[in-house]
Amino acid sequence: MKRSIGMVFGVAAFCALSSSSFAADPPAPAPAPGAQASAAPAPATPVADAPMVPPAKPGVFTATKKGATGYHLVVAGHKFTSRDDIEKYLAWRAADLTMADKGTWFTFTQARTAADKVPAPKRDPAAPRHSFKMANFQPVWRYKTKGAADWKSWSPYTGAAFFADGIKAEDITDFEASADIVVRKGVMDDADPLGYEAGAVSDLLINQVSPPV
Amino acid sequence: MILQKRLMICASAMAVMAGTAMPAAAAPWVRGYVVGQYEYAFRYGGRPDYTRGAEIEPGVDCPHGSSIHFANGEQTKIAVARQKFRTQQEIDWISAPPGLDQVRAPVLTRFHIWNRAVAYRAYKRGIETYVNPWAADDPGQPQVTSRIGDGFNLDGKVKAADFVSPDGEKGIDNNLYRAWGCDAPWRGNGNATLDLRANDKMQEGLYTMVIRVSGNKDPMNDDDATFEIGYSPDKIVKDARGGIAVDYSYRILTTAQYTKMKAKIKNGVVETEQVERMHTPRIAWFYDQTGDTNFAKGKVRLNMSADGLSASGLLGGYRDWRELYTENTFAQDGGQQGIREHEDHVSLYFALRRNADGMYNAKTAKYDGISSVYRIKAASAYVVNPENPKMEVPKLLLDEERKQAFEAIKANTIRGAETRIPQPVPPGTTEAAVGSFEHDIVDLPNKEFYIKTLDRPHYANEDKDGIPPWMRRRRGTSAPVPATPPAAQPAKPQNQVSIEKPTEVASAETK
Hints:
The structure holds two protein chains of two kinds.
Chain A: H1 2-17, H2 33-36, E1 61-66, E2 70-77, H3 83-100, E3 105-109, E4 140-145, E5 152-154, E6 172-184, E7 195-197, H4 198-205
Antiparallel strand pairs in A: 1-2, 2-6, 3-6, 3-7, 4-5, 4-6
Helix pairs in contact in A: 3-4
Chain B: H1 2-17, E1 29-40, E2 51-52, E3 55-56, H2 73-81, H3 88-95, H4 106-118, H5 175-180, H6 193-203, E4 208-215, E5 222-232, E6 248-251, E7 259-266, E8 269-272, E9 275-278, E10 295-304, E11 310-320, H7 321-329, H8 334-341, H9 345-355, E12 358-361, E13 366-384, H10 400-419, H11 436-440, H12 447-453, H13 469-474, H14 504-509
Parallel strand pairs in B: 6-13
Antiparallel strand pairs in B: 1-4, 1-13, 2-3, 4-5, 5-7, 7-8, 8-10, 9-10, 10-11, 11-13, 12-13
Helix pairs in contact in B: 2-3, 4-8, 7-9, 7-10
């Protein structure tokens, strides 16, 4: 009780001494015109030397609708350069197609069989999240070599070495890399190890790819 | 009249303190605060005394704990092995440089080798990664998996991925927490390293943020109050114990980093309206980072203690995620902060980008903003207007050169992300440990290997050792160049005013 009385007197003394304390401050002047509503960052403007992937010749890239939002994508050519080059071009086309379809991300469907030996990537929500994992974008291939009449196929899931590793590039007369994707909208599922944010993939690859011939 | 009102408020205060129930008086009132703690509203879910293998404080927020990028040689090896252009020797010698035991500063030497190497992780050599993160592989970032998060329902919707507030409110938008909440320097139980650093710098005078709440009813219940938040040119006054001293006076500038909003107060909880743009000082630990948060759809919730001595709360809205990226990356340089703090800004870039959820840009069909919520703790203060209402935020003359470099690297980073044309590192920065690397590697037996192999930006007027002019100036080996004098400096800064001295303001008002 004594303490309360003391505090009351303390407050009274404080009020008396600093009679400015509880008074309303004079109203603040209105903020400068830019203060309340400064413009958002300027949107991207067209750039003269913006990166551009050269157009592909007819037959190099095909996208076949598969289901409501899916596609079967094929990149074909005759002059084999490297696995990396061709697969990156296919991934860039997948991203480009996704954005053309107003999608924000796509999932890559691995073409696996019961005989495959390479383990499938597993979903782990507690693991680091990604906008893309290029290592998991693994198309399947078919190819023909000089003098051969039939196509041969190669799958990255069998565990076998890449078909071109033991062949001279000039001996490969025809090749196709193919991938199935599903175009998706909305927030990306970044715990999906086969999920790819289309814009991020496009940004990464646009300066790196060109269509095969 | 004013005196009469003042006495009425005093009488009310005395009645409350004496434990007597009295109806609240309707009178003009003002409460002021100076912010003493300012940090991202990240909800820590770990246990400070618990680690599991290499995991740092795993918890309900981050099941595998905080990020561990570059935490050791193995982690750095993982990061540099992603670049297909690197040889195996390069990868091995970067992650574990041979001959370190022969140098004077082995830890620092390794640090700068790592810094230089991780600054170049793009799809080909020569593209600096922190300016061009979009041109690098996504290393991955641990993200918050908990459903509980602090913040606001900024978009008025309740979406499946939204957080639920600790008191049960659904639809909480705080994707910055989801994206960065497991990032080591921002995660902790009051001990996150960059929280501590930023708060320490703020309390030591880097910048000051103040709040003024006013109304005409009861300070604890007023449905027509005014809320102001902004920058103060007055340094925070600390008490004898190092805490924030209460009831000192601070000017609030209304020219920049300032917002005035309508608010409602219920039982001491101030809830502001949501405004299109909310300007406040932003979190910073270097002068170059200081500036405006520029929240879109911003709002504040502040819980004022009944005694008026303290307040705590949240402020939030959507922030341009590229600005967040640059503010966190270029205070010093991306490699330096990343290695020291066990964070990878490339991972953080992609995490921001994919979690962006506001400020939709119809032209690009992308979100430019990410929902972001900051936590504040504040102490009672007298928040007053400056003598000159046009007073601008003061500039630090000696740091202006560095701030200009920060703005230049920020501009290049945003330009690169928008155009997808790799941008150079502008002069004036320490990106890729330029200067430090050359200085510390001199004793290393294989220094020529690193000098020849590792990329770095080059500039005009480097000396024979490759040290650019600004690094020579900072090291004191060449004459300083005075920065351009800032405009609109106050002729004579005012000092803080203690309440123990009745001021002229008081006598003037009683006239």
